[in-house]
Design a protein that fits this description.
Blueprint (H helix, E strand, L loop, with lengths): L14 E6 L5 H17 L3 E4 L6 H10 L1 E4 L10 E4 L6 H9 L3 E4 L3 H15 L3 E5 L5 H7 L6 E4 L16 E5 L5 H14 L13 H13 L5 E5 L5 H12 L4 E5 L15 E6 L5 H13 L5 E5 L11 H10 L17 E2 L1
Parallel strand pairs: 1-11, 1-12, 2-3, 2-4, 4-5, 6-7, 6-8, 9-10, 9-11, 12-13
Helix pairs in contact: 4-5, 7-8
Family: Belongs to the IspH family.
Organism: Cellulomonas marina
InterPro entries: LytB/IspH
Length: about 350
């Protein structure tokens, strides 16, 4: 009697689930293009206070073209041109720049400007403002500087019990734009337990791009053995995506600046890998990660799209005025995360 030969075990299908939306948001695109246009229009050097956006590759690329990144305005030669980053600055920074006769280009994201205006308005109404955000983050420092006598920073739910407020019935909360939606709502829930009269801002402060990238990761993470987020360590929204992936069911979740930081050991036994990128990440870095994964056997790419973004912001007013006077075309191509490689929607 012949013993049946067992059939070979099926080979697991290796694939990449690519999040969409991902990468550059409208505010980041505006800020990066502002520096590029300034260099083209005025020539190097163009000074930039802080990192224009939180991404190593972007900063290094602009520096190679003649952008000079400084920590404070007093490092900029008097009368020179300086760009303020997408994260925004306080009135004190504007005053310091004016005192040195600096020519400023304010590349603050309009959604951050909206939060600044909320802080000013609530302070004028003599309300106490609870700013949910990370102490030391440039965006939080800029917003806090709008009304320091009226604002307390709340880093997260763990800060709530220790808060001491002036008048619990005249409290309002606002937030950093790049936070985790879920963690922010948990902080608000805890705040409202302590302060039932807490007032909400008139509209959501967490930016549309941050929310959209988190929603896309939540959708793909449960099917993934590993999720890779492309983004820098000081990018708040990129770090949040790593956490969101893990909390949403991915077995493992890692952040890298570029493909060279990928560790093959992370993918042992994995069949499905998720890939996304933070809102300050150019698509070339995502392409590099996909190419590296393809070389390791993950060549099949499926796009998981949860939203389509079509928002664009006009360039900073100061730059638009100069470009108009010089007859320079202000149009620019979209940087909406589309890739040159073909992908199949799922």
């Amino acid at each position: 009697m012949t013993t049946p030969v067992p059939s070979a075990a099926p080979v697991a299908r290796k694939r990449v689930l690519l999040a969409a939306p991902r990468g550059y948001c409208a505010g980041v695109d505006r800020a990066v293009v502002a520096v590029e246009k300034a260099l083209e229009t005025y020539g190097a050097p163009v000074y930039v206070r802080k990192e224009i956006v939180h991404n190593k590759h972007v900063v290094q690329t602009l520096a190679a073209r003649g952008a000079v990144f400084v920590d404070e305005t007093d490092e900029v030669p008097e009368g020179a041109r300086v760009v303020f980053s997408a994260h925004g600055v306080s009135p004190a920074v504007h005053a310091s720049a004016a005192a040195r006769s600096l020519q400023t280009i304010d590349a603050t994201c309009p959604l951050v400007t909206k939060v600044h205006k909320e802080a000013v308005r609530f302070a004028a109404e003599d309300r106490e403002i609870l700013l949910i955000g990370h102490t030391g983050h440039e965006e939080v420092e800029g917003t806090y500087g709008e009304a320091p006598d009226h604002i307390q920073v709340v880093n997260g739910p763990e800060d709530v019990d220790a808060l001491v407020v002036r008048d619990p019935e005249r409290l309002v909360w606002i937030s950093q734009t790049t936070l985790s939606v879920d963690e922010t709502m948990e902080t608000v829930r805890r705040l409202r337990e302590r302060f039932p009269h807490l007032q909400d801002p008139p509209s959501d402060d967490i930016c549309y791009a941050t929310q959209n990238r988190q929603v896309a990761v939540k959708k793909l993470a449960p099917a993934c053995d590993v999720v890779i987020t492309v983004g820098s360590a000081n990018s708040s929204n990129s770090v949040r995506l790593v956490e969101v992936a893990r909390e949403s069911g991915a077995r493992a979740s890692y952040r890298v600046d570029h493909a060279d930081e990928l560790d093959p050991a992370w993918f042992d036994g994995a069949t499905t890998v998720g890939v996304t990128s933070g809102a300050s990440v150019p698509e070339i870095l995502v392409t590099g990660v996909l190419e590296r994964l393809a070389g390791w056997g993950w060549g099949e790419v499926e796009e998981v799209r949860t939203a389509t973004e079509d928002l664009m912001f006009s360039l900073p007013r100061e730059l638009r005025t100069d470009l108009r006077e010089r007859g320079v075309d202000q149009q620019r191509p979209r940087r909406d995360g589309r890739r040159s490689l073909e992908v199949q929607p799922v």
